[in-house]
Amino acid sequence: MSVKFEKETMRETTIPGGRKHDLAHEMGGKLGGKSQPGYLAAYLQQLQSNPLRTKMLTSGSLAALQEVLASWIANDKSKHGHYISSRVPKMAVYGAFISAPLGHLLISILQKLFAGRTSLKAKILQILVSNLVVSPIQNTIYLASMAIIAGARTFHQVRATVKSGFLPVMKVSWVTSPLALAFAQKFLPEQTWVPFFNIIAFVIGTYINAHTKKKRLAALRKKHYGDSGRSASGRGDDLPRPGY
Hints:
Elements: E1 13-15, E2 19-21, H1 23-30, H2 38-49, H3 51-74, H4 87-113, H5 120-149, H6 155-187, H7 193-225
Antiparallel strand pairs: 1-2
Helix pairs in contact: 2-3, 3-4, 3-7, 4-5, 5-6, 6-7
């Protein structure tokens, strides 16, 4: 079964006074400034003309960068002694071909459900739908994908990962998602919501990923060197690394 994504082609529209505006001008207006210059304007233009492709490239790049940055923060090197492991391209594939299309679809549906509804009640209801419907779907797919990337190969392994990680991840979502969505409702054009949420997820994901890596490395140190977590040479990173 294939899913057909409707291309969100944003046309120039005429505003009072005969002037025209595009996404870059709208972004500037939302933020209380002028139209955005340079690279941001070019990015917004691509987001306007090729929304799904731009979101895929953005999400894929951020997912790969998240893995490298988390490894650097946790000092988690591969067996070859560097921070770029086989997880990096896998995370890029996840970001580009799973996370971005899923977010594109779900956020588009959410926006269409509340199109033209600007009352406080409608905004609160949109936040509730996002937290009770959109976030659980995205987090379930995220946890299942991370389980597969980590080496899970059976349905039971994937299900166990989702079951154990779902509630902690949802707690984070319930704290950050309402704030992020309220900010987007107030300050951002709808076409920029998915990249904005990707950036929020990048920051949170990097922190969680680095924290998880540190805990795993600490457990390995304790296993190999005892409670001190140190080798005889006094270094805490002289321990066998996973073969990735």
